[in-house]
Specification:
The chain is built from 10 helices and 21 strands. α1 packs across α10, α2 crosses α10 and α8 crosses α9.
Length: 401
């Protein structure tokens, strides 16, 4: 009997998984996406960076799957004639106080096998790579690339359909129950029965997990990241990507510069708590989502630990001069007028525990025949093909043994 497999979520991870299963002839694959297009949220609202593996703890799932995923994604783009530009990334220590953290980034990068990595010391050598940057040292990742993740998702979805899979748009999963050895999935207008279900629901991952009685922890705390566009007249200030040395106490990289796959340069993102799971601006408010976050046991410990950074990030969001000061540290020639407009925003699904801790690595739960991807932050888009292989090998095949 052919196995019936349901996948919840039409972002790049869910579609990559559907493609792997459909092309392997594993069974009848059906994808549910609540929006009327694929890649509508995290996949279609990020910076487009294909990460090389610089930041992730040695031996973590992030490190393993990022390195494998980058190579697979590059090959996919070449096969499908999709844009893949290796513009390179420079992680810059602005002053000597950041050198120890930069050394740790270099150590992790080498342990993770980042290709072509080079240490760059001295302002003159930095400017050979980025002529307008300020700093005392950096690590350079020449093979860090940019792509169009939404276009990649659509191309993968076409592979799913070609292999006989089904992609259902505008179909939000509102009910799910394990009955014996099968899973009953309900949408607003239909009901389906599967032998296996895998949820890759991103911003809604904890909501979907609760449908089958999974632990409420980790919850999803939505963080919005806002991007400013650099004026065309001044985009020569950035050749590729200029990144800060990240603060190890916080799971976000900080404001940076990226030349995108279509040659636009954007600055950002910052990281502010969103007032709705899919809240792409301050006016997007969900009382339910906000209240659920505030009454979560981890809210107090998180606020106590990160309140200073929270105020700093919110100030940069509300006041352009504060955002500009963050960016100008790396390019002193930058003027406030060079930041022309907030052109985009994304919302990151950050998982957090009851104790207020923010989960740093990918996380998966298993509830009988239901596999739940509970945390898939950056570099999930980079790693999508490797994540798909990992889920198939470690969870779906394990269920059949």
């Amino acid at each position: 009997m052919t196995e019936r497999i349901g996948i919840i979520g039409g972002g790049i991870v869910g579609i990559a998984l559907a493609r792997a299963l459909a092309q392997a002839g594993t069974g009848e694959v059906t994808v549910f996406e609540k929006e009327h297009r694929l890649a509508a949220h995290q996949t279609g609202h990020n910076s487009g960076v294909v990460h090389a593996g610089l930041y992730y703890a040695e031996g973590s799932l992030k490190a393993q799957l990022c390195v494998a995923g980058r190579a697979a994604l590059r090959d996919f783009c070449l096969q499908k004639n999709l844009p893949y530009r290796e513009v390179g990334k420079l992680v810059v220590a602005v002053d000597e106080s950041e050198l120890p953290a930069l050394a740790e980034i270099e150590r992790r990068s080498r342990a993770n096998g980042v290709p072509g990595l080079a240490r760059v010391d001295g302002a003159a050598r930095l400017r050979e790579i980025e002529p307008h940057v300020a700093g005392v040292a950096a690590v350079h990742s020449p093979h860090t690339a940019v792509v169009d993740f939404a276009a990649i998702t659509e191309a993968m979805a076409q592979d799913v359909r070609t292999a006989g899979g089904t992609v259902l748009l505008g179909q939000e999963v509102v009910a799910m129950a394990v009955e014996g050895g099968t899973v009953r999935v309900g949408t607003a207008g239909s009901e389906h029965v599967f032998d296996r279900v895998i949820a890759c629901a991103g911003l809604q991952s904890d909501v979907v997990a609760r449908l089958v009685g999974a632990d409420p922890s980790p919850r999803i705390l939505p963080f919005r990241g806002e991007y400013w566009s650099l004026s065309r007249e001044r985009d020569h200030l950035v050749q590729g990507m200029i990144y800060p040395v990240p603060d190890p106490r916080f799971p976000f990289l900080g404001v940076h510069f990226t030349r995108g796959v279509y040659d636009d340069v954007h600055v950002g993102p910052n990281a502010v708590p969103a007032l709705a799971r899919e809240g792409y601006g301050w006016r997007s408010v969900s009382v339910k989502d906000t209240w659920d976050s505030l009454r979560w046991p981890g809210a107090g410990p998180l606020a106590k630990k990160h309140w200073r950074m929270g105020i700093d990030e919110i100030s940069a969001s509300l006041f352009k001069p504060a955002y500009y000061r963050k960016a100008r540290r790396f390019i002193p020639e930058l003027t406030m007028a060079d930041l022309t407009a907030k052109t985009a925003a994304g919302v990151r699904a950050q998982a957090w525990g009851r104790d207020g801790s923010l989960l740093d690595d990918f996380a998966v739960d298993q509830m009988g025949p239901v596999t739940l991807l509970r945390n898939a932050p950056s570099p999930a888009a980079t790693s999508c093909l490797a994540i798909a292989d990992y889920l198939v090998e470690q969870y779906l095949k394990a269920l059949r043994r």
